[in-house]
Specification:
Immunoglobulin-like; 5-stranded antiparallel sheet; 4-stranded antiparallel sheet; mainly beta; about 45% strand
């Protein structure tokens, strides 16, 4: 292969859009039939999760047929992975489906109990049924080698952390942190809360002498210990863990401020009386450059970002943020976007620019017609290319999906799916929308087919325009390595083929040069794109 630096046909090709936004299309009607006032025939796809390049989701194809499906693409064909006879479980932090290695785990509720299942080597197995449906036990933390840490139960030990390797024989209690039948997961509000970081699980638990503190586990009894004191020892009630992580550090909220750790050492990175850490996947999407976000309520609420050290912690805005503190954030090309209330009535889409320290309003959504209440029914963000998607309402459109490129003109409703009904949604949750194969895939309540699976083509690929005058150069060194050189920090470097498919990516490049091993790529035109602090630069190369 060799680099061709100047071809007239390439210039003509780049002047034509290779992908564009289109009207949404129905991917699959899981539960066909007439849509009635009782809303019987709804597939209601939910719990979206990508695993091994496939889209996993729950859906109903009958009145009591809750199933786990897998989609290899958006052709409409599906593979049924599990049928448990009822609607499958759901949790806000992991969508009800938790993957670890090649194992697929999921929970299902049954009155006062919940069951944990695994799909392993193409077969479904029940790993256990435990009491606790009413105390929010639908949570689990992946560990290496296909293992999972989850809240199990026995009469002798109560609710404690358990581990499974995806087999019944390999499912057992890890450690009786609170000896006896008393739960270690909190009282009177038991709740399993935690996250994975560098191959270990971090979660809140209490023993006989300490209150709810941060524990760590590698899935063994010896490797399960208290990691850090993050609460007063006598604190009781609904104690919550807010966290965020990048490749090198994680941060959590404590009564004293933001605690940061690299898994070995900890520091009180930002002291404060009240902090709110933004949980990835729940209240904002993970920054490709490693930024983690938190709100500090001290002399007014302020928005900060950090990479997990005191030296990298900085204020995003010069002014204080609204009291509701941006429940949802997203970052696209180094710029933050948030949904906020204005005057307690309208909802506004804001642009938060760390480079200028300012917040500007992109669009103020009109309030619900004939309603004196607030217009705050907005949820989540999903990013695709230079656009982001969210779920909100405006005037008579009720609940619908929107797309934005960060400008007022580019903030549009995808489709008014059900003009005469309250819901185009159907449930306001980020677990009902995802980016998959260059499409925005989502559940919508259509007046034609009911609540089913749809997709809208994303605006991605080499038709995207550059956003800065600074340049980058890229060349092939002849040994299977791509060299990218810029005039400023590169940030995220992406390699796209002519269809817009990402063939390679390098995140958090802090320097002006990076080497990316590509191996044997097919001959053709490629776009090399660098994105840092809201600026996008790109270069083209031809491999022959």
């Amino acid at each position: 292969m060799k680099l061709i630096t100047s071809i007239a046909s390439i210039a003509l090709l780049l002047q034509s859009p290779l992908s564009s936004a289109q009207s949404p299309t129905l991917v699959r009607d899981f539960y066909p039939g007439e849509v009635t006032a009782t809303i019987l025939n709804h597939g209601n796809p939910n719990g979206f999760r990508i695993h091994n390049d496939r889209l996993l989701l729950f859906a109903n194809d009958g009145p009591t047929a809750g199933k786990l499906f897998a989609l290899n693409d958006l052709s409409g064909s599906v593979e049924e992975l599990a049928h448990v006879g009822g609607v499958a479980g759901y949790t806000t932090t992991n969508g009800g489906i938790v993957t670890s290695g090649d194992n697929i785990y999921f929970f299902t509720p049954n009155v006062f109990d919940y069951s944990l299942y695994v799909v392993r080597n193409g077969t479904v197995e029940l790993l256990g049924t435990f009491p606790g449906t009413l105390v929010f036990y639908f949570a689990a933390i992946p560990l290496p080698d296909g293992k999972l840490l989850f809240p199990g139960h026995s009469e002798a030990n109560g609710h404690e952390p358990w581990v499974t390797d995806g087999t019944l024989a390999g499912t057992h209690m890890v450690k009786d942190i609170m000896p006896g039948s008393t739960t270690s997961l909190g009282s009177p509000f038991p709740l399993f809360q935690g996250f994975d970081f560098q191959g270990r699980a971090y979660f809140l638990a209490q023993n006989e002498t300490n209150g709810m503190q941060l524990w760590v586990s590698d899935g063994t009894e010896a490797g399960t210990t208290q990691f850090a004191e993050v609460n007063e020892q006598d604190e009781t009630g609904a104690i919550s863990l807010e966290w965020s992580k990048n490749e090198d550090h994680f941060i959590i909220n404590t009564p004293d401020g933001v605690l940061a750790s690299d898994g070995a050492t900890t520091e009180l990175m930002h002291p404060a009386t009240t902090v709110f850490v933004k949980i990835p996947g729940l209240t904002y999407s993970v920054s490709p450059e490693g930024w983690m976000y938190f709100i500090v309520s001290q002399n007014g609420a302020r928005l900060y970002r950090t990479k997990g050290t005191t030296a990298t912690t900085e204020a995003v805005l010069d002014a204080s943020v609204p009291n509701q503190a941006y429940p949802y954030l997203t970052e696209v090309n180094g710029v933050l976007y948030a949904l906020s209330t204005t005057g307690g009535v309208n909802t506004a889409l804001l642009r938060l620019d760390p480079a200028t320290g300012q917040a500007t309003t992109i669009k103020a959504f009109a309030p619900i017609t004939n309603s004196s209440g607030s217009n705050q029914n907005f949820y989540g963000f999903r990013e695709l290319g230079d656009h982001f998607y969210f779920f909100g309402i405006e005037g008579d459109t009720h609940r619908q999906y929107w797309r934005s490129d960060g400008t007022a003109a580019g903030t549009v409703m995808i489709s008014d799916f059900h003009p005469t009904y309250i819901n185009g949604g159907p449930n306001p949750s980020s677990a009902n929308m995802i980016a998959f194969q260059d499409h925005f895939v989502f559940t919508a309540n259509s007046e034609v087919v009911g609540s089913e699976l749809f997709a809208a083509q994303g605006v991605v690929g080499i038709a995207e325009s550059a956003k800065a005058n600074s340049t980058i150069n890229a060349w092939w060194d002849g040994s299977g390595t791509l060299v990218v050189q810029g005039t400023m920090q590169l940030g995220t470097v992406r390699v796209l083929d002519v269809t817009g498919r990402e063939v390679a990516r390098k995140d958090n490049v802090r320097g002006e040069q990076v080497r990316i091993p590509l191996g044997q790529q097919s001959a053709g035109l490629y776009l090399i794109r660098s994105e840092h602090k809201g600026q996008a630069r790109q270069s083209k190369l031809m491999l022959d």
